[in-house]
Amino acid sequence: MKSNQGGVKLSLVVISIIILGVSAWFNQAHASELALILY
User: Fold this and answer.
1) Residue 17 C-beta-side C-alpha neighbours within 13 Å
2) pLDDT for res 23
3) Where do the TM regions start and end (predicted)?
4) pLDDT at 27
5) How far is 8 from 10, CA to CA, in rounded Å?
6) In the prediction, which pLDDT does 24 show?
7) What is the 3-state secondary structure (H, E, C) of 1-39?
């Protein structure tokens, strides 16, 4: 059970990092679109 719990924690961490990366990428894309509109 311990190895199973560790795997679940690891996958949760990986999923969180992926979500953060995707949201940061969307924010960057949105900011560049705003910059194109403003300038």
Assistant:
1) 6
2) 93
3) 7-26
4) 87
5) 5
6) 92
7) CHHHHHHHHHHHHHHHHHHHHHHHHHHHHHHHHHHHHHC
Amino acid symbol at 29: A
Extract the tokens encoding 6: 């560790």
Q: Radius of gyration of the chain from Cα atoms?
A: 17
Residues 6+ apart with CB under 8 A from 21: none
Separation between Cα atoms, residue 19 and residue 1, nearest integer Å: 27
Q: What is the pTM of this model?
A: 0.60
Q: What is the pLDDT of residues 1-39, one digit of tens each?
A: 577 788 899 999 999 999 999 999 988 888 777 777 776
